[in-house]
Amino acid sequence: MPNSVLWAVDLFGRVYTLSTASQYWELCKDGQLEFKRVSAATQCCWGIACDNQVYVYVCASDVAIRRREEAYENQRWNPMGGFCEKLLLSDRWSWSDVSGLQHRPLDGVALPSPHWEWESDWYVDENFGGEPTEKGGWTYAIDFPATYTRDKKWNSCVRRRKWIRYRRYKSRDTWAKIPSKDDPKQLPDPFNDLSVGGWEITEEPSGRLSVWAVSVQGRVWYREDVSHSNPEGSSWSLVDTPGEVVQISCGPHDLLWATLWEGQALVREGIGRNSPTGSCWSIVEPPGPENGIMHVSVGVGVVWAVTKDRKVWFRRGVNSHNPCGTSWIEMVGEMTMVNVGLNDQVWGIGCEDRAVYFRQGVTPSELSGKTWKAIMAARECDRSHSGSSSSLLSAGCFFGDEVKGSGESAPSDTDATSEVERPGPGQHLPVESLDNSRNLKESLASGPVASRTAEGVIENACPTEGGPGLASTPAVLPWTNIDLKEPKKVPSHSAAGFPETTGLSSMGLLPLGLEEPYGAEDHPLWAWVSGGGCAVEACYVPKWFAAQSGLSPSVQTLSLSIMPAQTAAWRKQILQQLTERTKRELENFRHYEQAVEQSVWVKTGTLQWWCDWKPHKWVDVRVALEQFTGHDGARDSILFIYYVVHGEKKYIHVFLNDVTVLVPLLSEGKHSFALYTPERTRQRWPVRLAAATEQDMNDWLALLSLSCCESRKVHGRPSPQAIWSVTCKGDIFVSEPSPDLEAQEHPLPCDQMFWRQMGGHLRVVEANSQGVVWGLGYDHTAWVYTGGYGGGCFQGLASSTSNIYTQSDVKSVYIYENQRWNPVTGYTSRGLPTDRYMWSDATGLQECTKASTKPPSLQWTWVSDWSVDFSVPGGTDQEGWQYASDFPASYHGYKTMKDFVRRRCWARKCKLVTSGPWLEVAPIALRDVSIIPESPGTDRNGSSIALWAVSDKGDVLCRLGVSALNPAGSSWLHVGTDQPFTSVSIGACYQVWAVARDGSAFYRGSVSPSRPAGDCWYHIPSPPKQRLKQVSVGQTSVYALDENGNLWCRQGITPSYPQGSSWEHVSNNVCSVSVGPLDQVWVIADKVQGSRSLSRGTVCHRTGVQPHEPSGQGWDYGIGGGWDHISVRANATRAPRSSSREQEPSAPKEALGPACC
Amino acid sequence: MHYPIGLLFDLLASSSALPWNITVHFKSFPEKDLLHCPSKDVIEAHFMSCMKEADALKHKSQVINEMQKKDHKQLWMGLQNDRFDQFWAINRKLMEYPAEENGFRYIPFRIYQTTTERPFIQKLFRPVAADGQLHTLGDLLKEVCPSAIAPEDGEKKNQVMIHGIEPMLETPLQWLSEHLSYPDNFLHISIIPQPTD
């Protein structure tokens, strides 16, 4: 899980963050400003500073925030001078926006705020719908406005071209002031509260954020156009309210609550994709008439509130359909504020001790959680004197000398240890006083508070002494003699944190007063907390509480109260006796042979088998696995399947050294797996077996896999040359290539390759021969291979003990709601009798209702509710409907007279948690990745390994610092593009090819080890009338795949002209392609016909690929179906060429021509 | 008697000459004295129940109950296949105790004697005394099996054996439990007569 941070403001207005992976609060990098309120999202944090201005803190990322500005240059032809800038009077501006209605001269386009900078100068866009234009990017038409073409015709009277320029947001990792250049009349009065949310209303790439603010006068404002790509938004707009609002909270989804001055809560209704500000307010009464609500905070499906008597309340029954909920439940604890973060986790600030509390046990089924737990993290600046005791405790080794040694030197009991933890005042004073005098200076010198109220300064400075760590002995501290004395006592019932009292004043005025004793404790005093950017999984709690709980290792044996002398005596004796015993019982019998040399053992069980005869169905079978161990220790195994047909007992058997792969099958109801041998691979008919429980299946799978690996003597981590592949279920397989796999003559048939499974769940795996392996999940998370093996269902023996981590993946399940129009009632869910199901899958053949649709397999669980998917191809209307004349047809996103049916797509997310040798590469999600293949014979010692990727937003990225020792690399370098990209591939000689979203290809020039990102893109048109979707580059050859499954090979590539000249069609029926460092070509074929059935998703190897014939001759079919992806880019091994190679090209093994069914 | 083989050796054969000759019977199973194990699963179940009993004593079963089924499986597979690292990766957790305590709640132990009819002695015994002093092996024997230790002045009549060695009676019990327990997490202590050479 990636790390995320909790934001908090202490009583002095300093902003701190606490990472889920850390135990220390870190002072915000831009520590100059003092803040009253902060509200965080994952990418950014909004805040109101003590100068009452609004600031946004955008977290730094390797990918730049860039926006494209466009302007059009328009020209008209006249007989005298040809095309010129002189237009007709009725024409548009000679420089305009796309519609032509707005005048837009290049020098009139200004940066929106000082936080932006231009990336480059204006330039002409020469790419027109995926096709390059000649003649300076001009496109022609008969007249404005019309359809433009890139060809100049006899009747082309006007022409235009697009100029583009990028601006980049530069104020990252710092507080950027939101410019208040709005109309002065409308300028909102100073803000009092602010809340950020709404990021789940729209999905990527728009990534809209809702920013709501409350002014001192109680009015509510909404910030327009805030999104990832426009972090500041554009302007404030007023939202009418029925009363004076004091505080507001906006959830990640469509919940928005506010509190009124009078103590009721306001709930916004009608918030949605098309109306981010909602439509109307409704009022919710507080829990008691005299006990008004002071503070509310909302999540996705929860509302928490604090009333004026500091009691905490949970609102029952809140959801999207009923944002008001049903009733209040009182919770334990007294808080000044609560905040709901991601996953509906809750934080609060204790009323008495001003500590940040975390609500433990909040799960989807128990949203109110169990208990409050104080976060015990210290602040970064206190770290110097909170010495760790862990150094004293050595690992629990058994009888090592070092144990004895440190046992003698360690303090004789636990008290002593804890004394070291808390050094006396004398020890830490110097650090302390330095720290504090610095803080003092800072607060004196800085901030609007200092300039506004002198009193505030004293207030601010003074409590620093009450800060953590030192307060235990305040009297001893030398600097208490400075004229600061005690903080001014303010009665605590003056309601600190009440919006009415804090209104304009700074948080520095909050009373410390009576709570002085707490200042003596070792924790900071907090004023505000925001968990909107902090993802805490219900099952995994950060280490913020480590000081309090948990079983610590028993290594404290060392600090047991035993005299060192004694220690030595009994320890020494045990050690000595054990040594003697070993000698007595073992050493004298070394020459004895192993008693057990041969063994046969059997595991039996009951499974179901998908029978070989028609009608195919599951039949109950007895299964037995017999394992033999031969004299040489080698094991062999046979799997017997006993079945009964027509009352006759029969069996089939499989030698496990003959098995090529064991693969779990995708099935909604059954725990099933398939077993392939070369013969069964050719027939496209594996042995399918199903177990009654998941555990049972995993046991069998693990045991059979282990037996297969043993009989083939394959174990441990895969070699760097390994070939990786992924099934449509997300299971990962790896195969050790034999040297003759890529032999020129008689290559090993690829149905004989042995595949074994690795733990984890991925959509894509890419590797190179230096052992760098990256994977991408269905949720676009990037993962790097750790060098372990096993995980998933392979526990125990088949798994490495280290390098296995938890991995999760999320994907969506889609169903369709279909409706037919009838003249009386319009669109209804009553179709014709011949129609498809009114709730169906995409094909319309299967009925899929919201209630009956299950996650793809039993490993997946739902994590969201059904919601309309607006991102379907073809576009949708405002409610997500797509229209067509009839089922099945092509759908469009608007209604015409001829449309009689409509459909919309519903999506629901499900999640899988497994384990495997993978570690997450946070934080950027990726769509594609490519690692430079190692061509044979090259040695790239020292230089880092080139790795390119495309982010889920379409940004092209180049990873820096990747090496065999550090396969994850260090950081991303963003490579600018004019449009989003979908695929990238880097060849052995640093040729970088990529595919853009418009289906055309690009070649990146001048990429080299010293210039990892290259210099510019060369546009390469796609094959005629085809849109490319994937590209793969080997040593020299370049293959691309279009959206219709055609595979193309680039012709005419020479060292001096790496872009090549044309595309040559190689094959149809291809889903994905991988070209390796030997220019070997492997694909996943869509459909392959076997002797017994058809299989989709089959691994195929291109035969007859020669340097002078890079497109090859035929296909050799390997494992399938159900395969989704393969990477052969790590395999650079080839058997030595035989001398007869030049005489005649070897005949392809299988059918010539494209694979088809 | 379903005892670990090492214990059987300590208890019955520690003075016999090595190698230890074992007679394996293939018929007339002593149904009266021993439980018949029809399958490997039964042995696994028996082993796991010992582990659970030990953890009930050590941590009120908290640790073993928090484990997943696959962890339990790994304990058994590790033992079965003689893979110490696999086994210990999980068993380590069973050997931990809260930082604020000085040891387990109770020490899981069994004391076996050849001289009595009783199969073994098992009682609740804490690793730390009320005054914070650590209990030693001697303390334990004094409490639950005083006959095993020789009087101050008397002649040593018995050997106290664990894993084929005689730890000193001053050895802290907590340490023994952590380091000299059998795979089932019990400390199996054999009291055998002092051999008369």
From TrEMBL, chain A:
Residues 64-125, 137-170, 808-869, 880-913 form the Peroxin/Ferlin domain. Keywords: Autophagy, Cytoplasmic vesicle, Lipid-binding, Lysosome, Membrane, Repeat. GO terms for molecular function: lipid binding. GO terms for cellular component: autophagosome membrane; cytoplasmic vesicle; lysosomal membrane. GO terms for biological process: autophagy. Pfam families: Hyd_WA, Pex24p, Tectonin. It comes from the Eukaryota. It is found in: Cytoplasmic vesicle, Autophagosome membrane; Lysosome membrane. InterPro entries: Beta-propeller_rpt_TECPR, Peroxin/Ferlin, TECPR1-like_DysF, Tectonin_beta-prop. Residues 404-434, 1131-1157 are annotated as: Disordered. Belongs to the TECPR1 family. PANTHER family: DYSFERLIN-RELATED, TECTONIN BETA-PROPELLER REPEAT-CONTAINING PROTEIN 1. Interacts with ATG5; the interaction is direct. Interacts with WIPI2. Interacts with the ATG5-ATG12 conjugate, the interaction is however mutually exclusive with ATG16, since it does not interact with ATG12-ATG5-ATG16 complex. Tethering factor involved in autophagy. Involved in autophagosome maturation by promoting the autophagosome fusion with lysosomes: acts by associating with both the ATG5-ATG12 conjugate and phosphatidylinositol-3-phosphate (PtdIns(3)P) present at the surface of autophagosomes. Also involved in selective autophagy against bacterial pathogens, by being required for phagophore/preautophagosomal structure biogenesis and maturation. This is Tectonin beta-propeller repeat-containing protein 1. It comes from Microcebus murinus. The lineage of its organism: Eukaryota, Metazoa, Chordata, Craniata, Vertebrata. The gene is TECPR1.
Automatic annotation (TrEMBL), chain B:
GO terms for molecular function: Atg8-family ligase activity. The keyword Transmembrane does not apply. Coiled coil: none annotated. One of its GO terms (cellular component) is phagophore assembly site membrane. Residues 1-17 form the signal peptide. Residues 106-191 form the Autophagy protein ATG5 UblB domain. Its main location: cytoplasm. Residues 1-26 form the Autophagy protein ATG5 UblA domain. Residues 41-96 form the Autophagy protein ATG5 alpha-helical bundle region domain. Conjugated with ATG12. Forms a conjugate with ATG12. Part of the minor complex composed of 4 sets of ATG12-ATG5 and ATG16L1 (400 kDa); this complex interacts with ATG3 leading to disruption of ATG7 interaction and promotion of ATG8-like proteins lipidation. Forms an 800-kDa complex composed of ATG12-ATG5 and ATG16L2. The ATG12-ATG5 conjugate interacts with RAB33A; this interaction is bridged by ATG16L1 and promotes ATG12-ATG5-ATG16L1 complex recruitment to phagophores. Interacts with TECPR1; the interaction is direct and does not take place when ATG16L1 is associated with the ATG5-ATG12 conjugate. This is Autophagy protein 5. It comes from Propithecus coquereli. The lineage of its organism: Eukaryota, Metazoa, Chordata, Craniata, Vertebrata.
